[in-house]
Design brief:
alpha+beta; three-stranded antiparallel sheet; seven-stranded mixed sheet; single chain; 3 helices
Length: about 180
Amino acid sequence: MRQRLPVIHRITQHDAGPYRMERLDLEFSNGERRLYERLHPRGYGAVAVVPLLDAQTVLLVREYAAGFNRYELGLVKGRIDAGETPEQAANRELMEEAGYGAHDLRVLRTVSLTPTYMSHQTHVVLARDLYPQRLPGDEPEPLELVPWPLDDLEALFWREDCSEGRSIAALVIARDWLRRHATR
């Protein structure tokens, strides 16, 4: 049974750095009223790229993660620029961060970060048939490239330096998609 969406009586907003913060005055189907806050990122979303070096190997990058002041192992990721499709953004980010382009790019699905208070979306893009190609990026230092066997993702997920949820979700989604489409 689907619940009726709350009635929005009022929305106020203000700038919050790279986000727009909104405060919603909501009334739920049972008559309860609450104030909710939500963040809207500026821009056009993001991509998380699952680049396959071959049918059994994904290419990861190790980059500095300021939130934890450590280096984190994960996927190529980045913002979608104005006028770009997710596939174009994925290919550009792959060239900037990993020094590869892809002839075959496929959006597998879109995931959210924290939908209870943020509207940010990340497109999971599978990148196959890679070729060497580098574009200048905005990273302050070259990223370390780490090939990882798809058959050993569980070991990756238990590493302390692999905690970024979008990377973990994208790898599971890609692995499952590849398994389902292997015989087709």
